[in-house]
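Journal club prep — side note

Before the paper discussion, L.F. wants everyone to see what a predicted structure for a comparable chain looks like in token form. Sequence:
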Amino acid sequence: MWHIKRLETRLIVWITALSLIQALLFALLGQHLLEKSVREEVGKKALALASSIAELDEVQNALAYGDTQGLQDFIEKLRRSTGADFIVVGNTWRIRLTHPDPGRIGSLMVGGDSREALDGRSYISEAKGSLGYSLRGKVPVRDAQGKVVGLVSVGFLATSVNSLISAKLATLVAAVAGLLVLGVLASLWIARRVKGALYGLQPEEIGRLYAEQSAILNTVRTGILALDNHGVVRKLNRRAKDLLGLPDRQPGQPRRHIQMLLPEQAEFLLKDPELTLNGVELFANERWLVLSRLPLKVKDQTDGVLISFRPVDEIEELSQQLAKVQAFSELLRVQTHDYSNKLNTLGALIQMGAYQKAVEFIGLESQGYQEQVNQLIEHIQEPMVVGLLLGKYHKARELGVEMTVEPDSLMQAVGEAALVEKLLSILGNLIDNAIEAAVKTRARPPRILVMLDDVGNNIIFDVEDSGCGISDDQFASLCSPEYSSKDGRQHGVGLYLVQTYIQALGGSLELGQSILGGARFSVYLPKTPTQEEPR
């Protein structure tokens, strides 16, 4: 049995063997109790019959006055009607006055168990008499004055008792057999259920998978958390402990909760069991992490959450650079399309011979664009911000949106690369949202307004649009990481990332009403980032 490899076969063998042992023990115990019960029942019946016979006048008179004529026939009728194997009436000298075998009447009662009855006691005994071993009920017979004048012995032979026990044992054997069959069927059902629950895996395969899982989890460079539906940590690997700065959990300590590890993100990570996230940036343990979330399914039921996260490393930086290249490519495409339209217009004017108009068109276009460039270069000292604003200016023009940078805008060179990178991400996302909101609103001409200011130790900029505006409740939902802009709602693209960057830099984001009729986003950033975890 120990060489059986399949788990379901082992379960069947083990449960069947256990059921067999239980059935045998139950049979032995049942037989013992049954025999004891039958013997007690037969003994009580014999004693009750003997007591009843000892109270009969015929018996008392026969023993008191020696008139035994007709006593044998009377007692035999009682014996046949009650089913007793023998009823013996004896006098004080233990001489039989009645017996199933008439030839033994007048002989001495045998068995050695009649003395106590003549002393006045009623009892049950088991002894070997002239007919063999039997269970006997012995009762003294008293006359009218209460004097013992003889005894009555009613007995059931051992063969009769054993026949009665055997008849009842058949029922017991049937019950034991039914119990054994039930155990076998239960073993088959349990084996099938266990096999299904373990996806058909055998114990050796489960042990190997567990070892492989532990090795994989602790060698990958990604932090992994497995949570139940309530946020309690079931499993985390060594990398997750390192990234979150967690010590090893000591024996006896309570299990960790996601609220302890990622307090700022715990609510949305547990809010929707079916939510799937991929590549969400967050700030935790004084570093930037990229987080993904996937519901853990067991038999099509959500049984927890699987979270993976990694630091924003060189690969992530390369991805950001690629995104910048794509944005630059998009800018060139927009400019190419814009200038292609202008060249077509200019070519048509020349073909028509309207040379003066062509010259005026060239001057007007050059003057408008050059004025915008000169204004930005004169007031904005950070080249990266100038490049971003020019790119968004061309994008807005292609989409038919009038973009204006406040002439009074001022900004000194920032210098710190990390701050510049996040500032560009914040400003670019807000302008993109403003362009989208302005395009979607038909109630007024599409416009956006950008203002930058450099005051003391803070950088301040406003982005306003002519859209339909946004309420505080909408703003709270749009800033949540599970928000997706694919459903068509306004102002959603990148707002969570904007909010995260601002909080990480120790700044703030305010929502207001724009003079253009839509929403106004005001950002306040310290020039020296605090690098604190978001509140």
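L.F.'s comment for the group: The radius of gyration is 52 Å. Keep this in mind when we get to the figures.
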